[in-house]
Each structure stands twice: as C-alpha cells, then as structure tokens.
Amino acid sequence: MTLSLSLGxxxxxxxxxxxxxxxxxxxPPFSHRGIPATVKVMLATGLALAVSPRVENLVPDxxxxxxxxxxxxxxxxxxxxxxxAVVFSAVQSAxxxxxxxxxxxxxxxxxxxxxxxxxxxxxxxxxxxxxxLFASNGYQMVxxxxxxxxxxxxxxxxxxxxxxxxxxxxxxxGMFLATLQIAGPLxxxxxxxxxxxxxxTRVAPALNAFALGFPLKILLxxxxxxxxxxxxxxxxxxxxxxxxxxxLGVTS
Length: 252
Prior knowledge:
Layout: H1 7-26, H2 37-51, H3 63-102, E1 109-111, E2 116-118, H4 120-135, H5 138-152, H6 161-203, H7 213-230, H8 232-251
Antiparallel strand pairs: 1-2
Helix pairs in contact: 1-2, 1-3, 3-4, 3-6, 3-8, 4-8, 5-8, 6-7, 6-8
Keywords: Cell membrane, Cell projection, Cilium, Flagellum, Membrane, Transmembrane, Transmembrane helix
Subcellular location: Cell membrane
Main location: membrane
C-alpha cells in the first residue's frame, strides 16, 4: 500500500498555518497567556487543514522563494492580528482611564497573564473582554474573518502596507472614541466630584475637603462602575464587528 502526498498541498498547508499562527499569537482573545502555545499551534493546524482545500496550491521555484512566502504570510497574519488588537484595546484603555480618574492608578502593576500594565479596572476590563469573547462565541466571528481573508489575499499575495497603515490610523481613532464612550460618563462624574471638592475647599478652607477626595472618588467609582460594566457585552459585540470590518477593509 502506497501513500502519495502532494508536495504542493503540503507547502500550501504550511503557508496557511503560518498565517494562522501569526494571527493567533497577536489577536485577542487568543493572545492571552492563559492559552498555552501548544493549544495555539494545534488550533492553527486544525484551521489550516480546514482552509487549505479552499486555497490554490502554490509551488515555489526555490527554497529562497518559499522562505520569502513564509515571511510574507507571517507579516499578513501579524498585521491583521495587530489590527484586531488595536480595536479591542479600547476596553483596556477605558479601564485605565477609570483607574486614573478614580485614584486606583496608584496600585498599578504588570499582569504577566494578560500582558497588561495597569491597575484594577484596566485588568478587570481586559479579562472581562476575553471571557465575553469566548462565552458569546465572538472568537468564532474573529476566526471567520481571518478565514475570509484567504479569498481576498490568496497565498503568495502581499499585504498593502499603505492600506494597513490607513486602517491602523482609523482604528486608533476609533479606539480613543470607544474609550471615551465606555468610560466617559464615569469620568465626568469623577471630574465633577473634583470640582465640587475644590469649591468646598475654596468656601471653607478649614474643612480640608481634599482629604476626603480619595475615599470619595473610590466610593463613586465602585458605586457607578457597575453601570458601565453591565454594558460590556454590547460593547464587545460592537468592537467585534468593528474588527471584522477593519480586517476585511484591508484585504478587500
């Protein structure tokens, strides 16, 4: 019994797998350190086996050309993954803004699991985003968007860096806008609390109202942050749609 294996199919499978692995390493929620590297490689291999029949076999003329193709696929996967990461970083930025205005940034630290350098709300929001993506099957939409990129960018294609830069610029602008939309109401309340304490100190300096500033702002943050937290599922759904539009916009 002989088993024949097409060299072109195997090389194409490796190219598809490289793009998948590069994307999963960078894009949330798969970039979380809680997901072992072995799981990411196995997931990328499974996706590559499922996608490879849809792509045209590519047989390079030399080893050097094949290495160039591997590097190109890695750049495409990493670029698309970074585009998704920029969109979802709005959640972490919103948490960091709440930490800054609420006084929690004094307890800032680095979380090696999530690769987030922030205080309590920044890490809480980032972890919540990862959990919601898995619980709501949002990760399947992200993977579906990656699979659709093979129709617009077949194996051997090059990613238009100008369009990628334009997409990153617009995604960065959208990230700041989404950050303000998520944390804006609570930030306004904390700002008005600072203004009220300042006026109270101006009227009655002996009260030393700013001594109450930290506990009061912490109380307001803990009391009102739940309102923002309840809106996280709809926020993650909106960000997922935005990330898919960004990926398909670059590859279309």
